[in-house]
């Protein structure tokens, strides 16, 4: 519903980016108008970092600047994604509310001078954020330029201050009910951590050695809930005055201070920022990983790529420049996986300030540049793709993905330093992507019946209910692969006693894991079928399953079990990539899952979008440097002609008959 409204409003896919005109003067604004028209921009995110301008003194607002820009953009035919500026409080806020600044785990109170200097749990911050969201919504709630609302920017900042401690205690009380229950859940009898009053309970601040794992996990859960509550505060303040969709830009793929499933339920439209962290084909796989997650967080609904880079992006210790053609191919990658458009951070590259080296649609060199030419080509391409807006992506395979497990695997002192939640999730998705198969992510307690194959690469924490859900999925005919160190702790972070994984799931797998044998850092073991394992191994006892591949001592490493109408597979080591790919291909074949477009070579991606009325389009993206013939010629929306092959780096969007 929300998406349909946005599609109707934009007349097709969204194209544009963050627009921060406060950095420029009138002559540049006039050029912006002309260049946005030339590029085909139809949506601009305005006001993300404009708090100081909109509220120059606490409680004193000045809207003349924003009034003028909204009117100007509207007159130019550009819809506005109006932001609340709460990710960057002005310096007056620090001086007025020093208690609302964030405190790091080691007790350092941060000050302004950057951005995101606030504590989400501080009443003064929450009040100030709600107030500016309210006044913006009152003034612009039905402004004709405003197509949607962009609350805050990337809820990222953590805090360990006294306000956080107080809010954490309230949250813990609600979750556990009593201090006794908290002590029991956290296992505080060990290491003499027993709490006798609530004020002794702290957020996991810097301490001597390992934190209590229950405390760490609960803090992650709490913080995500706190951030979501801060979002909901603003969303509801806006909804009271505006009927336009409200969202916030989530960070994928690696950032995990938030339960993105929970955010997916509260936003009107999932929006993500995605800056791939590797070049070439790996960037394309990363885009697919982020896109499939974004779609899944929204329950399969179309979503929106809110930010990407037009060229150089800061990627940890590396700056990745985009190669010619990647602006289009990366954008189409996101759209193939369900995005309703392609937006960038930001429209015009800053000439000064902290992000002056972050690329933009209009670079420092100006419009006479390769970047701007490619941006303009993208705008034209998206106009031609208008008919796909509102369509969705379908998958027959799911990878299970759960915030509790991710957070739980983040604690100190696990039995191997190489157990890596995100790595395991990415590998499973990548193996499916390499096989040409479109993948959903799902939660372990979701109804999985629509999937032919489900992979559980890293469900370290598994509740009783989820374990039973997975058993039932297999019994009802599904194929399930569970990988090592799964179902090891329950929802309280207590070890499962009597063997792993959690009991009802063991039934579906026909095995019981007795012991772990983490491998040494460079150890690489050979299994009986010639495949190789690293990182981890286990003593697996067969309780009905057959051994498909064994360790050198003859015990099972990979098993298969028929349970009800389905099959449960268990893999107790980390296979090398090539061996893992062979296993995934075998499972896909057994489950009867085919690629979206069979017959394409490695590095050529094909994803299908489906309209509710039955129309379909194949997005086929050539991430290789070779010319690739298409399995069948088809009508390409991008050129309006029949396509028979893909040039190196080329893309087609085929309308299916
Ligand atoms: C995020 C932020 C932007 C900008 C970019 C830089 O996506 O939302 O404000 O800082 O990162 O990559």
From TrEMBL:
Positions of the Beta-galactosidase trimerisation domain: 395-593
Q: Which GO terms describe its cellular component?
A: beta-galactosidase complex
GO BP annotations, alphabetical order? galactose metabolic process
List the InterPro entries hit by this protein, alphabetically.
Beta_galactosidase_C, Beta_galactosidase_Trimer, Class_I_gatase-like, GH, Glyco_hydro_42, Glyco_hydro_42_N, Glyco_hydro_b
Q: Which residues form the Glycoside hydrolase family 42 N-terminal domain?
A: 18-384
Q: Give binding positions for substrate.
A: 115, 153
| EC numbers | 3.2.1.23
Recorded GO molecular functions are: beta-galactosidase activity; metal ion binding
Q: Which residues bind Zn(2+)?
A: 119, 159, 161
Per its UniProt entry, what is the enzyme's top EC class, as one word?
A: hydrolase
Q: Superkingdom of this entry's organism? A: Bacteria
- Report the Pfam families cross-referenced here: Glyco_hydro_42 (PF02449), Glyco_hydro_42C (PF08533), Glyco_hydro_42M (PF08532)
Q: Where is the active site?
A: 154 (proton donor), 307 (nucleophile)
Q: Which reaction does it catalyse?
A: Hydrolysis of terminal non-reducing beta-D-galactose residues in beta-D-galactosides
Domain (Beta-galactosidase C-terminal) spans: 603-656
> Could you tell me the keywords of this UniProt record?
Glycosidase, Hydrolase, Metal-binding, Zinc
- Report the sequence similarity comment from the record: Belongs to the glycosyl hydrolase 42 family.
Name of the protein in its database record: Beta-galactosidase
Lineage, highest ranks first: Bacteria, Bacillati, Actinomycetota, Actinomycetes, Pseudonocardiales
